[in-house]
Amino acid sequence: MSRLTDLLRQLRSADAQLGADLEKEIAALIKRRSFGLVFERHQPEAVELAGQPVRRTSKVRVLPPRGDTVKGDQRLWRVESLDVEDRAQVARLLEANSEAPESATAAVDDLVVVAEFEDKIYPGLVETGRIENGGDKPFHTVINAENFHALEMLTYTHRGKIDAIYIDPPYNTGARDWKYNNDYVEGDDDYRHSKWLAFMERRLLVARELLNPDDAVLIVTIDEKEYLRLGMLLEQTFPAARIQMVAAQIAPQGNPRNQQFYRTDEYVFFVGFGAASPAPLALGDSWRSGTGDAPTKNINWASLLRTGSERRRQDRPSMFYPIFVENTDRGARIRSFGAPFYGDDFTEVGAPAGTAAVWPIGRDGEIRRWQVSVESAERLRADGFLKAGRWNAGRTAIQYLARSNQQGILNGSIETSGRSWDGSYLVSDDHTPTFVPGTLWKVPSHDATRYGTQLIPRLLPSRKFPFPKSLYAVEDALRFYLKNREDAVILDFFAGSGTTAHAVMRLNHADQGRRQCISITNNEVSADEQEKLRKQGLRPGDLDWERLGICDYITKPRIRAAITGKTPDGSPIKGDYKFTDEFPMADGFEENAAFFTLTYESPLSVRHNRAFERIAPMLWLRAGSTGRIIDDLGDRGWDISEVYAVLENIDATDDFFRATQAAPEVRTVFVVTDDDAAFQMVCRELTSDLHVVQLYESYLQNFEINQGRGF
Length: 711
Hints:
six-stranded antiparallel β-sheet, 711 residues, 27% helix, alpha/beta
């Protein structure tokens, strides 16, 4: 290699750019494996950014005339200048990546900006809507973007912070189900497998930087077309992780395969990092796939009525009191408690309107006492450990969980399924055992047709999405790892119809969690729909085109419908959620969600604080996606939201310091200055428990470093 190094040095002195390019290619060849998974790392992908403004130096393609359905000129051009001719903006172009570049002229309206994955990008976000129905809970976010660039953006906001990634990538069936370099990959493409691997590797390498190395899980679903290659790719990308593959039945009816067996299942890879491991859950018999699924007996509700020794009223008079229960559409519920009764005729005690008084009376008529005092009973009910049984007026059973069971629930050793409608914990009234299942899942709720394809029209009548996952399959996969992590951050960068975010909301509903999901999807229009739209003279970027894209037509409306419990036309969603947490879909969820579109900023604009409005949502994401976004610092040059603060006016630090001291929930402070001394002064004045970030140095440095990946 020393001789080659000398030659490269000589070449760089004669032609610096050629020398650098050749050195890059040689480095890639040296890194190429001669063992394991070997594939062609194709030229870096390029993505068309419809709607992005054309500027001087922009890299662009020339679009075909409106109405044409043929593939247009795929050459890349660099915008040399922008002029106005006949009241229309015109661009002077020079061919990019060519030894003998041609020049051309084109109307700006006929150009689309292109970003190649080797280009430096400086991302921002523009908010396109939100829904607030969850109080102070963190927001779920949906980002309309090319997912590689969105992942790059998250390296600034969530590096090492993601607790779980669930993705359902393109299965590479050859049925025009994904694009590489703006072209659908066909079944007869000899390089479709290596293109798919290059496509996946680039994204997984960035995703690796986002996962919490101490405790996180990556879940990837795939079918038989690529599962072997995916398994090897995961092993090479995550050599220190624990990788296991599950076979899951998703199509009990079977999908035909030409000259092959019917396909009924798919494969789910679980990639565990650090302490991550599946927790035992309360599961039905359908989850058992072998004798290794050894169930652990769970606990049941016991009667609050005292039995055995010292059970009589006179043994503990203060534990003789009425419990007032009411009958609702969902069953019996404890409304309130009466004071201890020390008189003679307890039947004279009146019950509040609409309730019945339940006294500790044995079936044989013996006057007894409760197991606990009235104060303890009130506390047990508030904590979810006391409830009413089946309605039977004054003979309704009052049930509680013993102290050892309470402790087991609180420390996670006893499995629950969240809380019921009356506030009590859902713990195995039906003796459901808890266990970790085997690697063969044949669970009725994972039927992708019934609980995926047929679910979408309930939420979005007349709209369709190809091959959505069963809502409950995604929920179950995540629950094994997030059951005891109520503040987890989940990422799906192939979000599609938004099933992962929907599943996370169901997890939160079951246990009042505060998990948040980041969903990334593009606004691609299906291949068949594209041809129709092009014949109508439409192009990507046109309003009538974009409104039919995945993000705007399916993902965002689905999440909005799930939260509100209403379809896009305002009608209540019909039907009920099933299985682990059953309730009407029309009830919606107490959740918040915000929607964004990725933008591409100029580093100069960022450095001179001219892009703050578009960088602001990234600061909000980095601070936890809670509360409002600080997008305007006003005349005073600083602002404080619920959990973070931004300071630009260094001369106003005294007021800013006082305000932060009065805001104990603030955990992150962003300081806009390129003066290191001023930044250090601010750090010294703030309390040590605050995370202080310098803008825009940290932002610009992050995306400069990202370009060293060697894709």
